[in-house]
Every structure is written in C-alpha cells, then in structure tokens.
Design brief:
With 264 residues, the chain is of the alpha/beta class. Helix content is 44%, strand content 16%. It contains 9 helices and 13 strands. Helix 2 runs parallel beside helix 4 and helix 6 crosses helix 7. The longest helix has 31 residues, at 233-263. The termini are far apart. Residues 260-264 have low confidence and may be disordered.
Length: 264
C-alpha cells in the first residue's frame, strides 16, 4: 500500500460513557464499544499496527516512508471515553494514538480529567491540541484565533509536561492564516478533516483523515484500512459535496442544513 489512512474518532459510546441525548451530531460520530473493539481487532488481523501522528511525522521527517502496515489513529475533542475505553484497548494491542484535546473540556462532565490527560501520556499515547473552546477558527479574528491555539497548547503542556506540537482544527475549519500561525508557533503537523489517504513518503504539514462514524459498515472499514480507494468513492463524493455546500451556503447556512440532515 503506497498510501496510508489516518482514522478520526470522536468518542466510544457505552453505558459508562453515554452520548448526550440531545446532541445528534455527537451521536453520529459515536462508535459503540463493541464496534470499536472489532475495528481494532480487524486492524490487527490484517497485519496492521495503529500508530499516533507523532510516530508518523517522526518517520517522515527522518526521510523514511511510512511502513505499509501502519494505520494512523486519532481522537478529537477529549471525551472521557478516550481514557475509559480507548486507552486500555489500544494498550492491549500495542497501539498508539493521538488524542486532540479541547482545552475547556478538561475536567468538564463527560470530558477527560487533568489526571486522565496526564495518564494518556504516561501510558505512551500522544496528546495534541484541539483549540481552547472548540470555536471554529475561521469565524474568529486573528487575535482570538491565536488565543485558541496558544492557550490550548499551554494548558496541555502544563498538564502533560510533554511537547504539544500537533493540532486538529475544531470542526475541520482552518485557513491559510491558521496554517501560518501554527507554523509560526512551531507546530509540526495538522490533522485536518479533509477526506482521503496520505502518501507514504515525503514531509508534509497537513494530513487527511477518514472519519469513523457509528454508521460505518464493517466492509467499508475494511476497505479503509486496506487502502481500497475505489470502494470509498461514495465517501469521496460526499466529502466533496459538503465542501461545496459550505462554500455556497456559508457557515451559518451550512450548519442549519447539516443540523436538519442529522436529525432525520
């Protein structure tokens, strides 16, 4: 496989870590504990290994190609299930992942506690920043955008006593200004929400990811981890359509339409 996927998770749902009843969007991105366990087992059975973005970037920056059996694994937001479910299941299989943590969700109900964030790092996992308040960066002025980036980074550095130089823009919204700010603050990589695979060779700053949702079929998950692009054409088409809808309708119009679609 001359390209590799980076999987984008948000939460692992269970009785212990339920999805908020009134949040259709969160429900869409929730993967059940049973499905998540199956997916990690499937990665192993195909001879692959789940790795963090830190390992991928270090490999590329050293001039080496990403090994064909590596699968990038990431989690957005900083939900409690990252620690309760994802950490033990990843550790059992010798996998690592990147957890992009939103600053103001730390110590909030349903979010990671400060201790949990620290223990993710102590357990060999990788923590990146996901903004301070989860506001879309493209809706902010330059000063507020920089505050979102810098404050979230400083909080996580203080909590983990480890470098925080990876970032995922909330909602996947970013601009050239965002990229410039992240480079200026010495971030090493950005996990975007742009759909697709990444080439195994060559340095890069922006990485595509593939969202794993609650409705993803097992056959489609298999196609994803095996790099079968043709099997994912419907997802490519959907991703392109959403980008154009946002450009045409604007952010507010797009969010209203998206909200109606998710509730159906």
């Amino acid at each position: 496989m001359n390209r590799f996927p980076v999987l984008m998770y948000h939460r692992v749902a269970s009785d212990r870590c339920p999805v908020p009843n009134d949040d259709a969007e969160e429900s869409r991105y929730a993967v059940t504990l049973g499905d998540f366990t199956w997916q990690l087992d499937r990665i192993s059975r195909h001879g692959h290994t789940g790795v963090s973005m830190a390992r991928i970037v270090e490999c590329l920056d050293s001039g080496r190609d990403v090994p064909a059996h590596w699968i990038g694994i990431t989690f957005d937001d900083g939900n409690e299930s990252d620690y309760v479910h994802a950490l033990p299941l990843l550790s059992e299989r010798g996998f690592t992942a990147t957890f992009y943590v939103c600053g103001n969700r730390v110590d909030e109900p349903g979010g990671l506690t400060r201790t949990m964030v620290r223990e993710l790092v102590f357990a060999g996992q990788h923590v990146g920043a996901h903004g301070m308040t989860h506001r879309f960066l493209t809706a902010l002025d330059a000063s507020a955008e920089e505050d979102e980036i810098v404050q979230s980074r400083e909080l996580l550095k203080e909590l983990t006593d480890a470098p925080v130089d990876h970032f995922a823009p909330p909602g996947g919204r970013y601009s050239e200004r965002t990229v410039g700010m992240l480079r200026r603050h010495s971030f090493r990589a950005v996990g975007t929400s742009e759909f697709g695979f990444n080439a195994c060779g060559g340095r890069r700053f922006l990485f595509k990811r593939i969202a794993v949702t609650g409705s993803m079929s097992r056959s489609r998950f298999d196609a994803t981890i095996q790099g079968k692009t043709l099997s994912l054409l419907p997802l490519y088409a959907r991703a392109k359509a959403l980008v154009w809808m946002r450009r045409i309708l604007g952010e507010n119009g797009y969010r209203r339409l998206r909200s109606l679609a998710v509730k159906r």
